[in-house]
């Protein structure tokens, strides 16, 4: 008689108990299995939303940027927004300034360190960037 390789269980055997870890994992159907955000991504999104609105962005723009950063984190993109930097000071479009303007190379004199709104909201690589607590709180899923 020849042994057939395959599933050793018979068709009428009871099903094995489900993996309890998988049942209790609320992120089991989230990224990378779908586009849904994980719990840590939602926490980071919420923290970013609060920071961006605290810096003077309107809610809809803040949500749009925070959502763009979720994708940036998933793609392991190393660019950052000025809004994520600890050196950004001011509130609102007309008062944003870079506190590390020399390293960032955005001005020649301290009085010229005011930043345009388009630059503050654009993903970029900056020599003067210092990540805020928001980004370092979470790590992307491998």
Q: Would you write up a description of this structure?
A:
With 142 residues, the chain is mainly alpha-helical. It has six helices and two strands, in the order αααββααα. The protein has helices at 20-24, 39-54, 59-74, 101-104, 117-120, 133-136, and strands spanning 88-89, 97-98. A two-stranded antiparallel ribbon has the order 1-2.
Summarize the structure.
The chain has 142 residues and is mainly alpha-helical. It is built from six helices and two strands, in the order H-H-H-E-E-H-H-H.
| Structure annotation, total helices | 6
Residue windows where pLDDT falls under 50 for at least 5 positions: 136-142
What Rg is obtained from the alpha carbons, in whole angstroms? 23 Å
In the sheet with the most strands, the strands line up as: 1-2
Q: Secondary-structure element order, as H and E? A: HHHEEHHH
Helix content, binned percent: 25-40%
Number of DSSP strand runs: 2
Oligomer: single chain
Mean pLDDT: 82
What is the overall silhouette?
elongated
Specify the structural class.
Answer: mainly alpha
Question: Major beta sheet, specifics?
Answer: 2 strands, antiparallel
